[in-house]
Hints:
Four Helix Bundle (Hemerythrin (Met), subunit A); transcription regulation; globular; Arc Repressor Mutant, subunit A; 5% strand; mainly alpha; WH_DNA-bd_sf; GntR_C; 2 domains; transcription; DNA-binding; 9 helices
Amino acid sequence: MGAGLGWGIDNPGYVAFFDALIDGRLRLGQTVKQEELAEILGLSLSPMRETTTLLEAEGLITVRRRVGLTIFYPDVRFVGNTFQFREMLEREGLRRFAQTVTPQWISTRREEHRDIIDYVRAHPVRATYREPVKEVEHRFHISFIEAFDNDQISIIYKRLTQKMFILRLLTPESVGPANTILSMREHMAVIDALEARDVEGAVRGLETHVRNVLHRVLTT
């Protein structure tokens, strides 16, 4: 099997691995036998071997003979590097996106951000607002990446986004109601700058947002 950039990104076992981390069936830093992991992910032996190879290549697990598979536990350097890479991609994408942004995009994004803030206030339980917030975040950030019109960058960003979501498992309070609303307001500052055709203001707003999220992940 070729190991190109897109290899395995939609592999059922790869997707199931992230789902299991998110819903708590697996934990960061946990060690399990391959048979246990296969059962948790709902895989037979052959697909499990392929998934193990992929996860190990991605640095998401470490395979140790007679011990088992250890799920990675992000350290401060990993967290910082991940956020730095994300900021680099989104900053350049935003500069490109700002040249073609439409009034419809601005009005739609602003309205859904206002709506999600109201929703989080009315339903301040993470399990309730997690998916709606995730969708709003995705539509906001992916717009900048799509401005590259580059399949390889899109694949890299998809992998990066999955890892970013895992980082939030370290500090659940970093995505609690108050911090979630702060993030949405930071998004809206970028939207306002784009409406004003203030490209550098939008870039500064994005940089502030990413760094604030990093601070919340590391300190909350």
